[in-house]
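User: Predict the structure for this protein chain, please.
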Amino acid sequence: MTKEPNRQERKKAQTRVLIFETAMELFLKQGYDDTTIEQIVAKADLAKGTFFNHFPTKDAILSELGRRRVEMAEVLLQKEFSVLSSAQEKIICLLEVFGQVNEENKEITELVLRHMFVQMLSGLEQEKQNQKQFILVIEGLVSEGQVQGEFVDNVGPRYVAEIIAGMYFFTIYQWVQGELSNSLRQELLTRTKIIIRGIQTREKME
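Assistant: Here is the predicted structure, written as structure tokens:
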């Protein structure tokens, strides 16, 4: 049985959300680089020390956004994916939903993309964990497809997951740069299907 959070835990969670939402509002309004921690806490009417109780740096707020998107994928697996009959459908659905989220929040996606590579190279563990978790979700779906006979079993699920993840991030980059002729969701759908076709069993291709 899951323990219900007490009053102190609920207040702490609410404060974290307030800091996150205030920061994102300022990032979008005046830019990430021009937004300071002092401005965030002033607008949220909090002490500066409270900020550091929840986020060690300003960059950590963008990592929080990445973590939330990964959590969204996990919720899909537990709920929406339960009505889908194949692993292929689940992978396509996953990429479509992520495409939709990015299209609806392009300014935020640009912020995350701009700082993601810097954060990973600088060793920010949360950002690395976000990417690993995204790959693990896809890897699990590929393994499921192999068990169900949808995909060939002579390829490693991790390799396929990393290829799909690499395609996803590169497509996001092209979209942010304005290099796509189609919508982000259309491009993700087309490219995902090409990868999936390469690992389908002969029976599923016919």
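The mean pLDDT is 85.
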